[in-house]
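Journal club side-thread
Mid-discussion, someone asked how the predicted structure for our own chain would compare to the paper's figures. Pasting it here so we can look after the session.
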Amino acid sequence: MRKGVLLHKLILLELLLGIWQGFSMLFSDPIYSWWLSVGGIFLNASWSLHNVIAWMKIRLFLSKVPSAIFVGTVILVQPYWVVEIYATFSFYININDLFLRTRPWEALCRLGCPTFPLHINLNSH
């Protein structure tokens, strides 16, 4: 890693944030539920940082409006992830079944941002 390169530091931070989710499989309940939810916080932070990194890489190829839409979609889905973290926790410790109602929305909230540049790229050629 070259010294002083912000992008490399952000990618390393993204990897460090995302690694914690995988350790949930090492525990049984109730630790599993807690770890899954707390690890989800860092995993979602990693996902958001991943989108910031993606934007840093593609922003030179986007005009102002598509760039603003990309950043805006990342910002707009953040409330969903807060609800999803709570829903996961409450589902796995049997508080409620909110998770069953929020989970179908994950595809839209997770895949909306990465597919946006693909759509722009395909329509520009």
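Post-session note: The chain is about 75% helix and 0% strand.
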